[in-house]
Each structure stands twice: as structure tokens, then as C-alpha cells.
């Protein structure tokens, strides 16, 4: 029988069903593949890079020549079912992540999906606690990015095995089966009320999004104006601008965009860790006139107390602090929340240890009543994170205030089930799985260094 764990763990938060709780409904879908264990017989990982730096897509104050890239993982099983996962990287670093994925492969090959999901906690620990490899992290850096790629593929495989969408699948599992911690359980059980209405609402309206694609740092003013006016015509009302390299430039660009979008649209600014703490406070104070909702990554992503000081200083200006795209694990998020060091939690589907760890952060954010606005600036991140944010709304927070998911308008054409944006909202995905399967032709063309795209680039 194909069953998820009764006792399990979401990231580091263990969830156990309380004795007083009604027995949980066993879900019929778990029986669908009762006959198949889906033994993983192979793990392939490929270095897929897109030359986005050529046109400055994705550029910011610290990453001036980003080539959006992925360590792309395919799991093959003896049943023929496959799982697809990736982690996001920027060009050169991808080959290092590939090595780390290969180092983890031995822990995955030979295991059946049934074996993994019947003790997901143990499997997560196996990947993150190997006595020799954990020295590279633990649970941070390259080894954690590799863990995310592998676990994203496992979650995809599991959702496909159940013939279900990931966001709907986890919302069912984590209410009905993997419950050990009272508080987490209470949150999830409480959110059962109104779940169906919220799901219907999402199917009809979608989840609110904001765009970063108008104002990458390397774009000219002319380009910024054109993209902004196109976006306004397509219904966008929330915009993010890259800042942090030159104050006078920032003032000019932010004024320009604020003028274009008007006073009622929402504006966010993102410095990608460019400043020291005092510099962040004075720089952002100068930009307060354009009324940004948040300053994102003002300083080192590891400086929790620095973020707390910035939050405190900027609160009177009505500017919050957002961070998370380089917050390397749930423990960091815990401390950011405890220290009131952020006002917007930016989970990232490839930085943390996949769905497991992201669910732990969603639950903590709910507890601290801090809105979650995921990071999605990269290749495949929009496809992945849409599942997590739908889960957050439908099954955890039940709240849309001050919440929106990032959207960047690049590279979706390379996916078999690309995200669908309508009227500046993410429309729920329709195909089973975690939405990160890439078109074989795209992978072949963009694989580094042998793909046609790179052979041409290298010849230049
Ligand atoms: C290098 C990436 O494009 C980064 O700038 C993305 C980012 O900070 C965001 O989307 O936010
Ligand atoms: Mg950012």
C-alpha cells in the first residue's frame, strides 16, 4: 500500500497527529499506485544555461552579468515514471552544483518512492546529514542547492505518481497524514475552514503577482519606460525596481517609474545585499519619496541583527524589509522572525530544502503573522513557487493582505507546463507534478558547453 508517513517532518518542524484529533481520512489517491513502488533506478543531472546576461535580463547591483541557469535533475524509475527537479543558479556556478548533486545521487538511487515517502523525515535527514558531505553546509550553500534540486524532483515524482498537482497534493497530505506538532497542526486544521472557497477563488481569480521585469539594473531609461507602459496596459499594478549601484541613478529611475505607475500602484526596491547597515538606512531614506513598500536584501543576507536595525530605522518611513532569496535555511528564517528583522518573508523554492523546508517556513511566518511574498527571479522559480504560494493561501494563511508573488517574464517557453499569468495573477497550474519539466529540445540546446546556443556563443 502506498502511504505517506504517519509521523513525519516538514523541514525541521515535526508534525504529529494529536491523540484527541479525529482519526484522519485516509486518502483514496494513496491507493492508486498500490501496485507500484517506483524504484529510482537513475538520477541524471544537466547543466542548463541561458545567456540572459547578453541583454541584461536579471541584472542587479551585485549580479551584473547573470546567465539564468539550472542544475536540472531527472529521476528515472523502474515503472517508467519520471520526476523532474531543478535548482536555480547563475552560469559558472552550475557545474559546482552538478558535482554536489552527483555526490548525493548515491543516497537516492535504489530507493523506491514508497520507501522515501513512508519516512520522508528520514530521507530528508539522510540527504542533509551525511557524515562527510554535511561539512560542506550543513544545510546551506552548494550542498543545500543540490538537495533542493534532488528533493524538488522527488516531490514532483510523488505528485505525478498520485496524478495530482503539487500544491493540491501537499494540501491534502499535510492536513491528513503528517502531523506531529500541536501548533502546526492547529494552523493547518484551522485553515480547513473555507479551504474549498479559497481554492475556487484561486481557480477563478488567480494569486496576485508583481513584476520585476520592467526594471532590471542594466536596462536603459528608455527600455524601462517602454516595459512599464506595456506592463500597465497588461494590468500590472505592482512593480519592483533594482537599486543600489548609484544613488543619483536610483533617484532618477525610481522617480521615473513612480511617475509612470502613479501613486496608487505598489512599488518595491531591491538592493541585492549591496550596502552596510548604516548605508542602507541613509540610502533608502533618500528613496522614501517614491514610497516603496519594501526594501529587499538591503545588506548581507546573513546579518539578522543588521536587518533588525534597518527595519527599526525604516519603520517610521512606512518602508518594510523583505528578504529570503538567499536565506539559506529554516533556522535563519526563524531568527529573522524572532528578531523582527523582516516584514516580508521571501521563500525560495530552490534555496531551501524543497517543499519540506518551505512548509516549515510558511508555518512559522503564519505564527508570526508576517506575509509571505516568494522570490521567483530566476529560471523555473515562477513555475515551482506558484505551488507553494497557493498552498500558503489555501491551507495556511487564508489571507491575501500585503501578499503577492514575484513574476519575471523570462524563459517560460522552455517548460512543458509554463506558468499562466492573467491580469497580473498566477492562474493555478493544471498538469500533475511540480511544473519544472523542461522541453527536451530546450535542454539540449542550452546544455553547457555542448548545446548549440553555447557552441555559437563560444565561437564568437
Ligand atoms: C540575479 C537575479 O536576477 C536577482 O537579481 C533576482 C532578484 O533579486 C529578485 O528577483 O528579487
Ligand atoms: Mg531580490
Automatic annotation (TrEMBL):
It catalyses: L-fuconate = 2-dehydro-3-deoxy-L-fuconate + H2O. Its cofactor is Mg(2+). GO terms for biological process: amino acid catabolic process; carbohydrate catabolic process. Transmembrane segments: none annotated. SMART domains: MR_MLE. Its EC number is 4.2.1.68. It holds the Pfam family MR_MLE_N. Residues 1-24 are annotated as: Disordered. Keywords: Lyase, Magnesium, Metal-binding. Residues 221-317 form the Mandelate racemase/muconate lactonizing enzyme C-terminal domain. One of its GO terms (molecular function) is L-fuconate dehydratase activity. Belongs to the mandelate racemase/muconate lactonizing enzyme family. ENOSF1 subfamily. This is Mitochondrial enolase superfamily member 1. The gene is ENOSF1.
Amino acid at each position: 500500500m502506498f502511504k505517506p508517513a504517519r509521523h513525519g517532518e516538514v523541514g525541521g518542524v515535526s508534525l504529529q497527529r494529536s491523540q484527541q484529533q479525529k482519526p484522519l481520512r485516509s486518502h483514496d489517491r494513496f491507493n492508486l499506485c498500490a501496485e507500484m513502488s517506483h524504484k529510482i533506478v537513475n538520477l541524471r543531472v544537466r547543466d542548463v544555461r541561458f545567456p540572459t546576461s547578453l541583454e541584461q535580463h536579471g541584472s542587479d547591483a551585485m549580479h551584473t552579468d547573470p546567465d539564468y541557469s539550472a542544475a536540472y535533475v531527472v529521476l528515472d524509475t523502474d515503472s517508467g515514471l519520471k520526476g523532474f527537479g531543478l535548482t536555480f543558479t547563475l552560469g559558472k556556478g552550475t557545474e559546482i552544483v552538478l558535482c554536489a548533486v552527483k555526490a548525493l545521487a548515491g543516497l537516492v538511487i535504489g530507493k523506491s518512492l514508497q520507501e522515501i515517502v513512508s519516512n520522508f523525515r528520514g530521507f530528508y535527514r539522510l540527504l542533509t546529514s551525511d557524515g562527510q558531505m554535511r561539512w560542506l553546509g550543513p544545510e546551506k550553500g552548494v550542498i543545500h542547492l543540490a538537495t533542493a534540486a534532488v528533493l524538488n524532483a522527488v516531490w514532483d515524482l510523488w505528485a505525478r505518481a498520485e496524478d495530482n498537482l503539487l500544491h493540491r497534493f501537499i494540501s491534502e497530505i499535510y492536513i491528513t497524514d503528517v502531523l506531529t506538532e500541536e501548533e502546526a497542526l492547529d494552523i493547518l486544521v484551522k485553515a480547513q475552514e473555507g479551504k474549498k472557497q479559497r481554492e475556487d477563488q484561486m481557480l477563478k481569480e488567480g494569486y496576485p503577482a508583481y513584476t520585476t521585469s520592467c526594471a532590471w539594473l542594466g536596462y536603459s531609461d528608455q527600455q524601462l519606460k517602454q516595459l512599464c507602459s506595456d506592463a500597465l496596459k497588461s494590468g500590472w499594478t505592482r512593480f519592483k525596481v533594482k537599486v543600489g549601484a548609484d544613488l543619483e541613478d536610483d533617484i532618477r529611475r525610481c522617480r521615473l517609474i513612480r511617475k509612470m505607475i502613479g501613486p496608487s500602484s505598489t512599488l518595491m526596491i531591491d538592493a541585492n545585499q549591496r550596502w552596510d547597515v548604516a548605508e542602507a538606512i541613509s540610502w533608502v531614506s533618500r528613496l522614501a519619496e517614491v514610497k516603496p513598500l519594501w526594501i529587499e536584501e538591503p545588506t548581507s543576507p546573513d546579518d539578522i541583527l543588521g536587518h533588525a536595525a534597518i527595519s527599526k530605522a525604516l519603520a517610521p518611513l512606512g518602508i518594510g524589509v523583505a528578504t529570503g532569496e538567499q536565506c539559506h535555511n529554516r533556522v535563519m528564517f526563524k531568527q529573522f522572525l524572532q528578531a523582527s528583522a523582516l516584514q516580508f518573508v521571501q521563500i525560495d523554492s530552490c534555496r531551501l530544502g524543497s517543499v519540506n523546508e518551505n512548509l516549515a517556513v510558511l508555518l512559522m511566518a503564519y505564527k508570526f503573522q508576517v506575509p509571505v511574498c516568494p522570490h521567483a527571479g530566476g529560471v523555473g522559480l515562477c513555475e515551482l513557487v506558484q505551488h507553494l504560494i497557493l498552498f500558503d493561501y489555501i491551507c495556511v494563511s487564508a489571507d491575501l493582505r500585503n501578499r503577492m508573488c514575484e513574476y519575471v517574464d523570462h524563459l517560460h517557453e522552455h517548460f512543458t507546463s509554463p506558468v499562466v499569468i492573467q491580469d497580473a495573477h498566477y492562474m493555478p497550474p493544471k498538469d500533475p507534478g511540480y511544473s519544472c519539466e523542461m522541453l527536451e529540445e530546450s535542454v539540449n540546446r542550452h546544455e553547457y558547453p555542448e548545446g548549440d546556443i553555447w557552441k555559437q556563443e563560444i565561437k564568437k
